[in-house]
């Protein structure tokens, strides 16, 4: 199931060749919905602890929606670090917060154990969504739903 969920015929390389990386495409979706956001920073979660984010809506202070975008065309420890960042978001999230994870790039293909850890976070409802470049339309719908629940739209 994990493999079917994550990979499709459209490659990350071809999508990136269109001039935008993963974070840029995420930010474009957010702004097209009329939402304000902060990109790349730290948020304060449960217990006053902080974790890095790549997306915070409506902004860095008291975000209601946070996300981590991890696109890699290399392999190795950077991918394990990326998983730990996603796990941190899941651990520190407040009950009212939505957490989304974005992964893409050829480097993930050889890191099945790391992918499984992220997928398990989603499957066990520690995060609210997991997306690759080809799943960004689904992210848009999930983001709309989260924004409506928080009366941001």
Helices and strands, with pairings:
Layout (H helix, E strand, L loop, with lengths): L1 H5 L5 H5 L5 H11 L8 E4 L5 E4 L1 E3 L7 E7 L5 H16 L5 E7 L7 H12 L5 E3 L4 H14 L4
Parallel strand pairs: 4-5, 5-6
Antiparallel strand pairs: 1-2, 3-4
Helix pairs in contact: 4-5
Largest sheet: 4 strands, mixed
Mean pLDDT: 83
Query: In order across it, which strands form the biggest sheet?
Result: 3-4-5-6
With helices defined by DSSP (H or I, 4 residues minimum), what is the helix count?
6
Low-confidence stretches: 3-19
Rg calculated over all Cα atoms: 14 Å
How many strand units? 6
* Percent in helix: 40-55%
Order of helices and strands: HHHEEEEHEHEH
What is the overall shape?
globular
CA distance, first residue to last residue:
33 Å
Give the strand content: 15-25%
Structural class of the secondary elements? Answer: alpha/beta
Structural summary, described in words:
It is a single chain. By secondary structure, the protein is an alpha/beta fold. Helices cover 41% and strands 18% of the residues. It has 6 helices and 6 strands, in the order H-H-H-E-E-E-E-H-E-H-E-H. The strands form 2 sheets. It has a 4-stranded mixed β-sheet with strand order 3-4-5-6, sandwiched between helices. Strands 1-2 form a two-stranded antiparallel sheet. Helix 4 runs parallel beside helix 5. 37% of the residues are buried.
Short description:
The chain is an alpha/beta fold. The protein has helices at 2-6, 12-16, 22-32, 77-92, 112-123, 136-149, and strands at 41-44, 50-53, 55-57, 65-71, 98-104, 129-131. The termini are far apart.
């Amino acid at each position: 199931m994990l493999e079917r969920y994550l990979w499709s015929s459209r490659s990350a390389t071809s999508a990136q060749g269109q001039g935008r990386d993963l974070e840029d495409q995420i930010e474009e979706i957010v702004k097209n919905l009329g939402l304000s956001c902060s990109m790349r920073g730290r948020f304060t979660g449960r217990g006053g602890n902080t974790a890095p984010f790549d997306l915070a809506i409506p902004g860095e202070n008291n975000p209601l929606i946070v996300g981590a975008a991890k696109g890699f065309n290399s392999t190795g420890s950077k991918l394990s670090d990326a998983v730990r960042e996603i796990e941190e978001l899941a651990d520190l999230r407040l009950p009212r917060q939505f957490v989304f994870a974005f992964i893409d790039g050829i480097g993930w293909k050889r890191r099945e154990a790391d992918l499984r850890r992220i997928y398990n976070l989603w499957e066990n409802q520690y995060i609210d969504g997991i997306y690759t470049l080809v799943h960004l339309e689904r992210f848009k719908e999930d983001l709309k739903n989260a924004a409506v629940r928080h009366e941001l739209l």
